[in-house]
Amino acid sequence: MNLCVVSTYSGTKEDYLKLYDSFKDDIAKYTDGFEMGFVRDGKVIIVANVTDEEKFYALFEDPRSKEFDAKFNNVDDVYKLEKM
Questions:
Q1: 2-81: which CATH topology?
Q2: Which residue, among 65, 61, 47, 57, has the nearest Cα to 5 in the 3D structure?
Q3: pLDDT tens profile 58-76
Q4: Which of 4, 41, 52, 72 is most buried, judged by most C-beta within 10 A?
Q5: What's the predicted TM-score (pTM) here?
Q6: Are 57 and 30 a contacting pair, CB within 8 Å?
Q7: Residues near 59 by Cβ (< 8 Å), separated by ≥ 6?
Q8: 34 bridge partner residues
C-alpha cells in the first residue's frame, strides 16, 4: 500500500532525522520504497510503499514516536495513495 505522511512539528530537520535514525532499520523491513523530503524545518513529507501495514503503523505508537510527538508537538497526517 502506498502512503504519504505529512508531519508538522516545532523542531528542526536534525531533530526529525534523529527520530528517523532510530527507526530506519524497521522502516526498511516494512517498506519496499521510502522517500523523505523536507519542506522546511518543522515539515517533512514521506512517501512509502508499505509491505507490512500493521508493523509500520505500530511505529507511530512506539514510545520513541510518542516522546517526539509530545516534545515537538508533532502531528502526522497519513494519506493512502492510489496510482492513476
A1: Alpha-Beta Plaits (3.30.70)
A2: 47
A3: 999 999 999 999 999 999 9
A4: 72
A5: 0.91
A6: no
A7: 23, 26, 27, 30, 65
A8: 48
